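Hi C.,

You asked whether I'd gotten around to modeling the 356-residue construct. I have! Everything is below, sequence then structure, no commentary in between.
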Amino acid sequence: MYIKKLEVTNFRNYDKFKLEDLKNLNIIIGENGVGKTSIIESIYVCSLARSFKSNDDGVILKSGKDFAKIKIELQNQEKIKKLEYIFTEQGKKTKINNTLKKKISDFISQYKVILFSPDELRIIKEAPNTRRNYLNISLSQINKSYIKLLNNYNILIKNKNDYLKKMYINSNMDTTYLDILDEKISSLGYQICKSRSEYIFKLNKYIKKIFKKFKKEDEVCIKYISQFSDKSIEEILSMLKKNRSNECSLGLTKTGIHRDDIVFMHNGMSAKEFSSQGIQKLILLSLKMAELEVLVNDYYEEPILLLDDLFSELDSINQNSILNNLNKNIQVFITTTDVNNIKPSMVKKSKVIELK
């Protein structure tokens, strides 16, 4: 599956922008600030109904306009699928083949995206909730039931927190409601933990080999940290009950997959704490290429690869290593300030989009 046509209206700084006759490799060239990343962002938004630049959906709306629209035409063999994403201050609307979708979950991931961007370094550098968010987005593209599980789990945690706060004020309240919530939390938490663990296992199969293309002598792996790891539903329920008195005294749920984390290990040590920013960038790029391998080899999907400002992040040796190993069946969008960063033979086969 690949994008045949892209059209944006009132998106970021664009009044209108249209790209047609797109190829497997598409190179977007222009000076900094001309809107290269906005094109990458529009492709991402039309897949996941959210921006990778901000948690505020309104940032995509051009100043002074009352709507933003992205239209994408996908081609899969002989079939054409038309997608439309519309954002207004009142909310989001989505269409597939001109049919309005009632739920965003029915629209997202009509095509899969993998993004490499300098901003993505926050996955390694920032707090655990950033890494959990990364996991959730990745898994939501693979398994739609995961989104439902996660949403239901989050509702349970909110309800439990509300009740714990009331218990914190009034210690004589009945705990029967907590028993019901903990049973459901243990079941959903077990399923979510299992999905995350399996995904990390798959990523590790590939990331170790990929990183060695950059640093032959070095070892990289991803460590999944969860209170629920390797535990049955019954063991999880027992843990929740054991920790209840502590949670009641705090008025907060401290046990569950909402506190999960992943650690990127470089030569046996935390990359966040001990690796240079250059190594962290290579780990991040290896992670993205591992995501690609998981989707292609384990789930038989052909995602769209978005490489934003790739060449400013890598030296020429590592640039060539990435370009030479790109899957020829995967559609790729690269932004760069200079086409000379890319081998002439690849440029000749690509669609070059020059922005001014």
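If it helps when you're writing up: The domain at 1-112+302-356 is CATH 3.40.50.300 (Rossmann fold).

Thanks,
B.
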